Amino acid sequence: MQDMLVDKLPAGNDYNQMRAFIAVAEYLSFSRAAEVLGVSPSALSQMIRSFEERVGMRLLHRTTRNVSLTEVGENLFRRVRPAAFELGEALAQTRIAGERPAGTVRVHTFRSAAQKHIEPILTSFAERYPDIVLDITIDDEAVDIVARGYDVGLRIGEVIERDMVAVRLGPELRQLAIATPDYFRRHGRPEHPRDLVHHRCVRWRWPGHRAPYAWEFFENDAWFSVAVNGPLIVSDKETAVNAVLQGLGIGFAVEDTVADYLAQGRLISCLEAWSAPFPGWFVCYPQQRQMAPALRAFIDAVRSGLSVPIAELSGGANVVG
């Protein structure tokens, strides 16, 4: 069935000649039809003659002063005109869709990235792009964006998949060991990251992983990790910080997410000499020859207002400005 439909579609000269016939039949004037089509009257006349030869029937009566349709031409025009109109409308709507962003953009984002880079733009984005639907999944699992069917993701630079395009959204980040002033008064401060094994720590694990995350520090130009212990393991970073605020133990969090608590004195950081920066937040998406306008609109909106240096990531991601 599909092969038969394709076989019946006009191609090449057939299509151009049919356009010429429809224009002449519509205006009943070679000069007016030629003007609309952007060709010379003589070229249009040749196209009509070729079309009549192709169908094997005379379609137009011509005199020096008038143009009219033959009965066969009238029947053909009556049938092809609606189809030509529908085809033109379909092509026009396709062009409009390409010019005006529309459709659904599926986003996967870490919770902190959503709070910092997506939540502040939601209202203005919806007002500017009323035909775009943002379908956002918020969790801290480092899923495969393409395999899970997402269009775009917000990630820290260390967990971006290979062969993805990664666009930096902000400066580098760092993680700090934190606790309440009361906890440090009662238990003392660790002098070195390895002293953490003697403290109660609030641990966090990546969603989908069974083992808790080993806290990472930097010394002598190299990263090293410390497997801490404590009474609580959670998969949600906000819950971990709340537990630290209640005095349950020492936690480990990205500095930006606890900056207010540090400024208020509700939390105190330690071991800062071993806390080195790492690549911050990126918006990442699969390499593609032609990006959908809706996806481009979202990426541009998330990036807007930020201007930071671009650094190469390890792991094969392509970092762009």
Give the helix/strand layout:
Blueprint: H1 2-8, H2 13-27, H3 30-37, H4 41-55, E1 60-62, E2 67-69, H5 71-99, E3 103-109, H6 111-118, H7 122-128, E4 132-138, E5 152-156, E6 164-168, E7 175-179, H8 181-187, E8 202-204, E9 215-219, E10 222-226, E11 232-234, H9 237-245, E12 251-254, H10 255-264, E13 268-270, E14 281-286, H11 293-303, E15 318-320
Parallel strand pairs: 3-4, 3-5, 6-15, 8-11
Antiparallel strand pairs: 1-2, 5-14, 6-14, 7-12, 7-13, 9-10
Helix pairs in contact: 2-3, 2-4, 2-5, 3-4
Keywords for this entry:
disordered N terminus; 321 residues; 15 strands; three-stranded antiparallel beta sheet; Arc Repressor Mutant, subunit A; alpha/beta; single chain; D-Maltodextrin-Binding Protein, domain 2
Give an account of the 3D structure.
- This protein has 321 residues and is of the alpha/beta class.
- The protein folds into three domains: 98 residues, Winged helix-like DNA-binding domain superfamily/Winged helix DNA-binding domain (Arc Repressor Mutant, subunit A, Orthogonal Bundle), CATH 1.10.10.10; 112 residues, Periplasmic binding protein-like II (D-Maltodextrin-Binding Protein, domain 2, 3-Layer(aba) Sandwich); 100 residues, D-Maltodextrin-Binding Protein, domain 2.
- 39% of the residues lie in helices and 21% in strands.
- The strands form five sheets. It has a six-stranded mixed beta sheet.
- Helix 2 crosses helix 3, helix 2 packs across helix 5 and helix 3 packs across helix 4.
- The longest helix is centred in the first third of the chain and has 29 residues.
